[in-house]
Each structure stands twice: as C-alpha cells, then as structure tokens.
Design goal:
425 residues, alpha/beta, Transferase, Pyrimidine Nucleoside Phosphorylase, Chain A, domain 3, Aldehyde Oxidoreductase, domain 3, 3 domains, 4-stranded antiparallel beta sheet, 44% helix, binds uracil
C-alpha cells in the first residue's frame, strides 16, 4: 500500500510514480485521506521534477475517474468543443459555439470564470439578464439538442479532483507547471464527453504562456493526452500580445460578440474565430464555410436560441457603466504596442474581474480600445475608454496602464495571429 510521505520523497528525489501509486494518491486526496499539506509538497515536487509521459497519462486518467463522465450519446450531431488557455478580450467562445453549431456540429462547452487579469466566459454571459450558467446534465443536453450549442459551468461531479487540486495550486505557487495545467484542462474535457476538441493556446504578454516554446510544449502535451483518451484533438497557437477585438470586460464583450455574429466584428476576432471554427468542423468531419454562416444570420440565430434556452433574454439591454474616462495618445504616430496584460489588469481594477473566487464581478465595467496596434493616431486622440460604476477606480486602472502603450514613427510589422497548428502525431 503506497503512503503519502513515501510518494513525496520518491517524487522529490526524481523517481517516476507508478500508475497504481498515482491512482491511490488522487483517489486518497479526493476522499480526504491525503492531507492538503502533503498534496502541496507533492505538487511542488511535480513542479520541479515534471512528469514522465506515463505519469501524466495516469494522473490525467485518475482525475477523470475521480468523478462522473458525461454521456453525449443522445446528441444527434458530431460533438466538438474548444478550450482557450485564456486571454484579454477573448470573447471567441461567444461567437464560435453558435457559429460551429450553425454549420451542423454540436458544441458542449463547459466554461470557467475569470480570475486575475483574464476574463471568464461565464462572467461575460451573466451580463445577459436572466441567463443561467448552472445547468443539470439533462438541461445541458436539452439545450445542446435544441440550439446545437451550450455554454455552462461544469457541475460539481465532473473531475472533482481537479477542482480541489486547482484551488490548492492557486495558493501554493504550483499553477505554472505544464503537466499540471495540461492534466487539469484535459481531465475536464475528457470527462465532458466531447468527441473532438480544438485548443486555442494563447502566447504573449496577456497569456498564461508568454513564450512560444512553453506554449508549444503545453499544446503538444494536451494534444497527446486527448489522442490517448480517444478525443480527436488539435491546437492552434494564437497571439495574445494585444487585446482581442476592441472590448475588454463583460457586457462590452457580449456587445462585441453580437456585432461579430451580425458580420460586423473586428478583423482580429473574426480571423481567430474562423481559424478555430475551421479546425473544429474538420475534426467533426463537416464540410461547411463558417465565414458564410457568420455573415448571413445563421450563427446569430443559434446564439439567440442558446441564450433563451438558458433563461436569458437576448433582446434585453445590457448593463452600461455610469462613468467613463479616456486615455489619450501622448504623441502623434503609429500605435505600435497596446499591452494585453496591462489592459486586462486595468479592466479588472475597474471592476470587470475578481480578486478572490467568491467576489462578484461588475458586468458594466471594462475598457474599449479606441485604437489598436497598427492604427495611426494624433496627439491627444483618445485611445482607450475606461468604464466603471465607481469613479474612484479610475486612478488604479490608469496606474496599471502606465507604460502599456508605445507610439512610434512607423507602423509595427504585421504579425500573423495564428502562429502554428499542432495536431496529434
Ligand atoms: N485552466 C485550467 O482549467 N487548469 C489549469 O491548470 C490552468 C488553466
């Protein structure tokens, strides 16, 4: 019988744990038999020692087995989901799920809430009056059948080991570990029951992974785990140095997603959304042109059906902030850099994000990027509009934006948003 201290020592000293030891460890931690301080020490050992491919496979499988696995067999269309590692202004899911559904796939999207400088899809959709993130398994399948897509919170029975481990990692300095991130994300996606999955792995200042090699390794690791679990998985590495689109916040992002569903979206958001949609449709075995569905109202119709099926009123006015303040260009020239992380932190300080899991977000707060990198600006021209219900928050937001903007005499070099595609070997 393994014991927790023995496993901590083994991992600390560089011995790979066996499948049986990992099953015991995850099971015993989930049931409360392994103490938080013991799991903390083990996570730190994993952080420094990494995991072998065999350990990672067993760890992920044990996290999946810690809870229920959804059965999407009753859904009459190929299932395909998307997961983003998180960014600033990343409202892609709000457009992508209905878009891909309108092309004939079923999109079961279990999403999360924002923490820190990155926003969460559920927080954004909760700007819509009446919309509910928490659905039972039966309700989720009913929405999926009627609208072709559903965006909701994962229930407590899905990968409960990850729920506890993620909270522990958050307070023990062990979040930024590629095997721990990969197993955390993939255990939830495998348990969700989707047949196929596209990963949007963000790279850059506003992303979890700021450097390309680490993002590539994370993507390859997750794609490998998906393939081993029988989920057809591919990843796109996409750039997250500037906010995606112009809106950063909650209601303001829903508004921009709606414009995109009407065919009036900002070019960068449209480009990333269509690239992911094409990957999802290819994995689902569907031949369709997502660009056409974005322009002709079919995707918008799916969005409205999904919102209404989850109790929301798609025609209700969205919350609007009481106060606005602009940040202006210090000089004339070309906007060369608008730092995604700084804009994310500023939006968070305006009230759009939360500092602790239990905090409420303010749905009206956020930032509108009136200029984006590549735009020519005049001295004194407004480049950011800050929105908040609390004027006292503007000073802290402006402080976060110090040094976030570069204006120069020439436009920045054009860089592709989709950097690389990673598929199973
Ligand atoms: N998202 C997750 O679900 N888990 C991680 O570890 C990181 C991001």
């Amino acid at each position: 019988m393994p014991d927790a201290v023995g496993l901590i020592l083994a991992k600390r000293d560089g011995r790979a744990l066996t499948d049986e030891e990992i099953r015991w460890l995850i099971g015993s931690y989930t049931s409360g038999a392994v103490a938080e301080e013991q799991m903390s020490a083990l996570l730190m050992a994993v952080y420094f020692r990494g995991m072998s491919p065999g350990e990672l496979r067993a760890w992920t499988a044990a996290m999946v087995s810690s809870g229920e696995r959804l059965d999407l067999g009753a859904v009459p269309a190929p299932t395909v989901d998307k997961h983003s590692t998180g960014g600033v202004g990343d409202k892609v899911s709000l457009v992508l799920a209905p878009l891909v559904a309108s092309c004939g796939a079923a999109v079961p999207q279990l999403s999360g809430r924002g923490l820190g400088h990155t926003g969460g899809t559920l927080d954004k959709l909760e700007s819509v009056p009446g919309w509910r993130a928490s659905l039972s398994g039966d309700e989720m399948i009913a929405v999926l059948r009627s609208a072709g897509c559903v965006i909701c919170a994962a229930g407590p029975g899905l990968a409960p080991a990850d729920r506890r481990l993620y909270a522990l990692r958050d307070v023990t300095g062990t979040v930024e570990s590629i095997p721990l991130i990969a197993s955390s994300i993939m255990s939830k996606k495998i348990a969700e029951g989707t047949a196929a999955l596209v990963l949007d792995v963000k790279v850059g200042s506003g992303a979890f992974m700021r450097e390309l090699p680490a993002a590539r390794e994370l993507a390859q690791t997750m794609v490998g785990l998906g393939a081993e679990a029988g989920v057809r998985t591919a990843a796109l590495l996409t750039r997250m140095d500037a906010p995606l689109g112009r809106a950063v916040g909650n209601a303001v992002e829903v508004q921009e997603a709606l414009a995109t569903l009407r065919g009036e979206g900002p070019p960068d958001l449209v480009e990333v959304t269509l690239a992911l949609a094409r990957e999802m449709l290819a994995l689902a075995g569907i031949e369709a042109d997502p660009a056409a569905a974005l322009g002709d109202g079919r995707a918008l119709d799916r969005y409205r059906r999904m919102i209404a099926a989850q109790g929301g009123d798609p025609d209700a006015p969205l919350p609007r902030a009481r106060h606005r303040q602009v940040v202006t260009a210090a000089q004339a020239g070309w906007l060369r850099r608008l730092d995604a992380r700084a804009v994310g932190v500023a939006a968070w300080r305006l009230g759009a994000g939360r500092a602790r899991k239990e905090d409420q977000v303010n749905h009206a707060a956020g930032i509108i990027c009136l200029a984006k990198p590549g735009d020519e600006v005049a001295a004194g021209q407004p480049i950011l509009e800050l929105r908040s219900d609390d004027e006292a928050r503007f000073a802290a937001a402006a402080e976060a934006l110090a040094g976030a903007v570069d204006i120069g005499p020439a436009p920045p070099p054009a860089v592709p948003l989709v950097i690389e595609r990673i598929a199973a070997a």
